[in-house]
Amino acid sequence: MTLPLTPSPEVARALAEGAPLVALESTIITHGMPWPQNLETARAAEDAVRAAGAVPATMAVIEGRIRVGLDAETLEGFARSTDVAKLSRADFAACLARGGSGATTVSATMIAARAAGIAVFATGGIGGVHRGAETSFDISADLQELAQTPVTVVAAGAKAILDLPKTYEVLETLGVPVIAYRSDRLPAFWSRDSGLPAPLRMDDPAEIARAHAMRATLGLPGGQLVTNPIPEADEIPSDDLAPAITMALAEAEARGIAAKAVTPFLLDRIFHMTDGRSLTANIALVLNNARLAAAIARELGASSA
Ligand code: PSU
């Protein structure tokens, strides 16, 4: 069976030339942000990657094919639609086999990136262990994916709606390197400091690229999580956000929101409760991650050349 993969002309050229590429996901567009900021951010993230000297590859599944790099019309169609499936490792192959369409989460984007030969991926914040997981068992497929698929993921940490200590504990158990960029602390998505110490710190994209290559040399499966704190000017201190997170979680529980619907519900409630401040911060951190991912992708190309 041949891989149902369609790169855009820009991505196909970059792959043929060995130019640095950065994967971007599409769930953040369909389930993570409201219209029209979702489309503006998707475009701005692509531009940020280009400005930093790499080629962006926004991933999605359309009519049974993995699209690597989306044209303007497709991107806008995704951003406008309200009933797109949210794909992760568990349903990715089934969607392709049925000729379906869907947005890729972190786990599905990592699978698509590996299939396309792209080693670096920028997102906002990864999924992780949900609060109350001791009874709900709700743990994002993103964590298992990091343990299995050799892609370096740049994020502002795991989303602060999660149980962060448990999320990082699971990543440690799974053997996923968590590298804090230019910080001794792990960030908390909208805030720069989660209060948790960083297991590893690196200050230079070249070093992060070498660590990625070294895992392959050692024959280790899985990727790396690079935590990149939101720029100081854009952060929302954790104390300001805590009441909104608590209220949103209580609402989700009262309304019986479960499984894939939890994260989009919480992000939307927090957006309304903070009068849009959480979205402004989310956009800033996505662009910041796109820039760092491009720098790592460039170094990775240089080190393997
Ligand atoms: N980053 C953001 N916003 C998002 C996401 C990432 O800034 O909405 C998405 C990613 O696609 C990630 C998903 O994989 O949230 C996590 O969803 P869940 O907790 O259901 O696994």
Automatic annotation (TrEMBL):
SUPFAM superfamilies noted in UniProt: Indigoidine synthase A-like
Any single GO BP term: nucleobase catabolic process
Keyword annotations: Glycosidase, Hydrolase, Lyase, Manganese, Metal-binding
Residues annotated as the enzyme's active site: 25 (proton donor), 159 (nucleophile)
Gene Ontology molecular function: hydrolase activity, acting on glycosyl bonds; metal ion binding; pseudouridylate synthase activity
Record keyword Hydrolase present: yes
Enzyme class: lyase
Binding-site residues for substrate, renumbered to this chain: 86, 106, 140-142
Pfam families the record matches: Indigoidine_A
Annotated positions binding Mn(2+): 138
Name of the protein: Pseudouridine-5'-phosphate glycosidase
